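Two entries, shown back to back:
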Amino acid sequence: MPKIVELLFDCDNTLVLSEELAFEACAELANEILAKRNIDARYTGPGLMNDFVGQNFRGVVKGMEDKYQFELSDEEREGYVKMEEDRVIATLKKKAQPCVGANEELEKLAKSKKYGMAVVSSSALRRVQASVEKVDQAKFFPPDHIFSAATSLEKPTTKPDPAIYLHACKVIGVKPEECIAVEDSKSGTLSAVRAGIHTIAYTGSYDKEEKRAEIGKLLTEVGAKVVMTHWSQFDDCVAAIEKS
């Protein structure tokens, strides 16, 4: 197989423990949208996360439109996307924490200079930047190597669309098969795999062992090569892929 030269990291709940914080803020806005249309259904943060983990708010809104049979204008939809972005960023700037062991592993990788490193997320660029800055990870990534499916593409999209990974590879100047991605969700894993990128399934952000096992099984079924339950296992996971 080609030599691995670039590591591509998802952000939310892979590098930064941000999904639960973000989905609490998202749920409030989602419920406002539903109430405005006299739809009785309501979301909690965990419920919204269960239905839409790995997707950005544009994807959440589109999913609600499909599920509850209503349609927003493009202007309304983008207005809600901007509103959600502002609310989530404010929360992350106060409360975001790094995934356990992530900063230590990134420090080792930066010192080794063996691989290039980038962030590839579904979330809005401002949100990703706020997250990695809050947990002191921004120093590990060139500013122009932080990519957002919601912001970096000419046409915004969300994972599992592989477009953001393909775009990242093109900008960085590497082939997908020369990269390893780290993802914690089905949509993210599918995005990387569909782009032709070797993928590590990260399950360490899930609290319960039973849930970690369930997610690990799911992500390998959709194409992840190995499962990583803690960032201390990263070197071994990369080695396993490089030897395959």
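entry 2 starts here
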Amino acid sequence: MFRLPIAIGITAISIYSVQKSYIAITNLQKYEERSERAAKHSETAAHELHKTRTTQGSSAGAIALSLLSSIAITLSVAFGSSTPTAWEHMLPPVNILAIGASFMHNQNFWKAKAKVPFVGGFNEGIEKSKEIRQLLFVLGIAWGALGAIGWISNWSQHPPPRYQDAFNMQIVHMRVRHSHKRTSAVYT
């Protein structure tokens, strides 16, 4: 019931994140030639260039996985069964792990970066990277909600046997106790 709107929401956030990621990458690529020249003369600059590329790549990869997964779940829920399949149960934790790893990778790299005066595109790239981290956080929460709702809906439709037996035994016990109270009330 709630899976379809959440899956559609994740798809929309993922599409928006793809756009932000593209803008951040293109803004940072404007300064890549200068960075490559500096990397030839400085090991620190080479390391920074490598880290910039990997953080942007990890974000783009996690967002692409989120987009593809959310589209697959949206189509499955819209045209398939109301009960989540095994692969639908696996996609939320996989996405949470990928998004969480990307978020932490980005957080550790970009939190210490200061804006550079007179370099607007680079500063805009830093700002977009911050926005991407926020979007990754939202995506992680949304995938957690989708996963929880999937497990709850599956469990409510198909409870594990031990819980079903305990539930049935409790109902039988309540009926016996209730019928016993009625019969004892008749005889007193």
